[in-house]
């Protein structure tokens, strides 16, 4: 039991954890993460403590390849290979929950020094090479399809996220980027490997200069190993960890250890693909705005990733983007500002616990964003409508209508307007980052590292 701990876990969850651990729950803390997770300790009658990391899926029935159940299957299979992954201590079919072995170390590689970053990344590349060398048939992951062509590798996850979005959001950037991905599938495919699918800094833990565990296997699947290298670019974008020379040295190390070449054009393609997967997934998440989710973080990721998608496309296409002038308008006094001041000055100091304090601060950031939309939104909407009209030849009365006009036009245009449209989408992405500055400030100044 864990009656002394406040929580909103599903009925029966704490009883199951205590039964698995063979004792009394003595720690139960919500973990600050984009997917729901909890840190749990169970103290046994002999005084020993079982340390767990709980993942749960409140809405899934466990089917498919992007579920907590699939993730648990993956980790159980990989634990037999020598790869550093947390063991699965228990699985509940009824609760759709997994108890993971809690591993030592940290995930914030960007907060360490250059020497430790270099050592950890070199060790990580060794682990990635091991992962990519595994025989797909030996893993027993029969619920996952094994692609046979480069197109199947490149588009399988894209097909999934489009189905996940389910037509909930129409946006010209998504239409443009998805068309680009389907038109530019890499021609080369040296081998099909098992991929983490979202690999790189912050999705592995480290301790004393080495990787202690590779975590977060939600997006694991079979595909082109170049996809995981493209994923490293996107993870490192948010968790800068390559002092000096960028990602080139660790890609060369991958070549040395694996014996396979790194195709930088494919890496650039998969860097775009990873960001498109992210923005399409985030579009659905931010359309729903589930109170259980870290909404401020999701909005931050969405708009930073939209700008990064434009920049990744521009590099792959050799197009130069134009950063727009942003209005120098100060936000005036408002009721929203009063709410934010009250939350931070009076409520936050009285709140205990890292997770509730995190939630409260992020709620204040969202209120600030609402204030900016009310005060700055109409001005920026006018700019957008003018620029859309320059592309389509028609100025709509409202921004939603104008964006829909452009979305439909992109669907009908060929590639002749690619560069012109991308430059507009890049300017729009910068303006959206400006409009959502309070949450975007959670990840300030993010830029790509060199990959060659």
What's the short story on this structure?
The chain has 452 residues and is α+β, with helices and mostly antiparallel strands.
What would you say this structure looks like, in words?
The protein has 452 residues and is α+β, with helices and mostly antiparallel strands. Helix content is 51%, strand content 10%. It contains 14 helices and 9 strands. The protein has helices at residues 13-21, 68-78, 114-133, 150-165, 172-183, 225-238, 248-258, 264-288, 295-317, 335-347, 354-392, 399-412, 418-435, 437-440, and strands at residues 24-30, 37-43, 49-56, 88-92, 97-101, 193-195, 204-207, 210-214, 221-223. The strands form 3 sheets. A 5-stranded antiparallel sheet has the order 1-2-3-5-4, sandwiched between helices. Strands 6-9 form a two-stranded antiparallel ribbon. A hairpin with a 2-residue loop joins strand 7 and strand 8 (210-214). Helix 5 (172-183) runs parallel beside helix 12, helix 11 (354-392) packs across helix 12 and helix 11 (354-392) runs antiparallel to helix 13. The radius of gyration is 23 Å and the shape is globular. The protein starts with 12 loop residues before the first helix and ends in a 12-residue tail after the last helix. The model has no long low-confidence stretch (mean pLDDT 93).
